[in-house]
Amino acid sequence: MLLRPAEEFRDQAATIVTAERDRLRALGVVGELVLTGGSSVAGALTRGDVDLHLRVRPAAFAGVVALLRRTYVVVHPEIWAPTLATFAVPAALPAGMAVTPAGSEHDLRFTRTWQLLAADPALLDAYNEAKLAAGEGDRGYEDGKSAFFDQLLRLWPTHPAGAAGPRSAGNPDRVTDTGPAG
After folding, report:
1. Is the pLDDT of residue 164 over 90?
2. Which of 43, 48, 87, 174 has a 20 to 30 Å separation from 13 between CA atoms?
3. How far is C-alpha 168 from the geometric centre of its chain's CA atoms?
4. Phi then psi for 151, rounded to 5 degrees?
5. Alpha carbons 167 and 150: distance in angstroms, whole number
6. Domains present along the chain, CATH in parentheses
7. Tens-digit pLDDT profile for residues 51-107
């Protein structure tokens, strides 16, 4: 698997985020769209794909997912859960969007783990090492990555960049409005 520094993709990723915010706004989707994944953290190694996370109010989740199913291509239906839906995003780089209700298990997994990786160089080094050790298309890579993120979540309560720090991500009351268009 060819991995490159996230910095090589930051400008393109930012363009994709802006375009998707506009698209979601035009669809009337209310939520907070954030760049996540390897391309969101300086110093992270990435395949060059763009991961987006759409956080929506819990009461709106089912309706938003139903709307997005009519507009976007569903990807990885095998990982869908009551608090997670995933879609392909048409873009210049490979891109996908995970949709979660704010404050849900999946929402907190995305927001908290990437906050820790962005704040802690040692954790980011461990993340990069795990990616470098994995083989192309290796199921062990996905399992190892999941276990690594489980470990990050266990660190959250006591980590200075987590709940023990001055600010924490994943606040279920903080969903920035992306729409509707008007």
Report:
1. no
2. 174
3. 16
4. -65, -45
5. 21
6. 4-155 (3.30.460.10)
7. 999 999 999 999 999 999 999 999 999 999 999 999 999 999 999 999 999 999 999
In which residue are the tokens 């192309």 written?
136
Structure-block tokens of residue 150: 């489980």
Q: What amino acid occupies position 156? A: W
Q: Extract the tokens encoding 123.
A: 């954790």
- Tokens 């996540």 sit on residue: 36
Paired with 98 in beta bridges are 53, 86
Is the pLDDT assigned to residue 19 strictly greater than 90? yes
| SS3 annotation, 9-40 | HHHHHHHHHHHHHHHHHHHCCCCEEEEECHHH
Residues 6+ apart with CB under 8 A from 115: 161, 162, 168, 169, 170
What DSSP letter does each residue of the chain carry, written as one string? Answer: ---EEGGGGHHHHHHHHHHHHHHHHHHT--SEEEEESGGGSTT-EE-S-EEEEEEE-GGGHHHHHHHHHHHSEE--GGG-BTTBEEEE--SSS-EEEEEEETTSHHHHHHHHHHHHHHH-HHHHHHHHHHHHHSPTT-HHHHHHHHHHHHHHHHHTTT-TTTTTSS--S--TT---------
pLDDT at site 94: 96
| Angstrom distance (rounded) from CA 138 to CA 111 | 25
